[in-house]
């Protein structure tokens, strides 16, 4: 589900960037972002776009680097696979479903996609996963993506960072890691 949203949000971001609307610059006073699902400290100087259940951040443009934060209900977690997320799933199961959903979201199935790492992590006190993948676009440009996620009774939370391997991925990885470390969910009452 979140990869489909990534693609649709990417298209809308291109339209929004042409219009100049929807993006706000993150300054020191506005670093703490929160909505009804989650909160985090955004990197200073980056641009932020909020569409309700998902957030996009970019420093130099969404095709050069993009951080995304997405919430979806457990039932809507993996629509291409027609599978749900469950609090009973192991982090490794969630990671494998995430990788499969990413592959299923692409017309060609991303045959050249390489899983660099897949490991369990703790995010906001929740057992989750961290997946690092590499792939090459048809144009030949190499990209890397990190996806972190976990599931609660409320739903699936996914955070990702995507950038070209050359220059941007390593340069802005620290900003993504800092956002992950400050990420917290809104607890249901």
General description of the model:
The chain is α+β, with helices and mostly antiparallel strands. It has one domain (2-185): 3-Layer(aba) Sandwich (Protein Transport Mog1p, Chain A), CATH 3.40.1000.10. The chain is 26% helix and 36% strand. It is built from 3 helices and 11 strands. The protein has helices at residues 2-19, 91-104, 165-182; strands at 23-25, 32-34, 38-41, 47-50, 54-58, 66-72, 114-123, 126-136, 142-151, 156-164, 184-185. The strands form 2 sheets. An 8-stranded antiparallel β-sheet has the order 1-4-5-6-10-9-8-7, with helices on both faces. Strands 2-3-11 form a 3-stranded antiparallel β-sheet. A hairpin with a 7-residue loop joins strand 5 and strand 6. The chain is globular, with a radius of gyration of 16 Å. The model is unreliable at 3-21 (pLDDT under 50).
What descriptive keywords fit this protein?
189 residues; alpha+beta; 8-stranded antiparallel beta sheet; 3-stranded antiparallel beta sheet; 3 helices
- The average pLDDT score comes to 87
Tell me the distance between the termini: 26 Å
Mind describing the biggest β-sheet?
Answer: 8 strands, antiparallel
> Structural class, please?
alpha+beta
Poorly predicted regions are: 3-21
Radius of gyration: 16 Å
Any idea of the CATH class? Alpha Beta
Tell me the fraction of residues in β-strands, as a range: 35-45%
- CATH superfamily, by name, is Mog1/PsbP, alpha/beta/alpha sandwich
Number of domains: 1
Helix content: 25-40%
Gross morphology: globular
Question: What is the fold-level CATH name, i.e. the topology?
Answer: Protein Transport Mog1p, Chain A
Order of helices and strands: HEEEEEEHEEEEHE
**How many individual helices?**
3
């Amino acid at each position: 589900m979140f990869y489909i949203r990534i693609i649709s949000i990417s298209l809308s971001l291109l339209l929004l960037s042409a219009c100049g609307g929807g993006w706000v610059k993150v300054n020191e006073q506005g670093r703490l972002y929160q909505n009804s699902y989650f909160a985090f400290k955004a990197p200073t100087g980056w641009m932020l776009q909020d569409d309700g259940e998902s957030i996009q951040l970019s420093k130099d443009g969404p095709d050069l680097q993009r951080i995304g934060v997405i919430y979806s209900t457990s039932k809507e977690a993996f629509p291409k696979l027609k599978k749900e997320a469950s609090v009973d799933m192991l982090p490794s199961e969630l990671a494998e479903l995430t990788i499969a959903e990413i592959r299923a979201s692409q017309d060609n199935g991303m045959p050249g996609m390489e899983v660099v790492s897949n490991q369990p992590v703790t995010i906001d006190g929740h057992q989750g996963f961290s997946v690092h993948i590499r792939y090459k676009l048809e144009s030949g440009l190499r990209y890397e993506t990190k996806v972190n996620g976990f599931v609660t009774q409320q739903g699936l939370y996914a955070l990702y960072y995507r950038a070209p391997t050359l220059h941007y991925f390593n340069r802005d990885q620290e900003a993504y890691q800092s956002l992950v470390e400050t990420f917290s969910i809104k607890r249901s009452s």
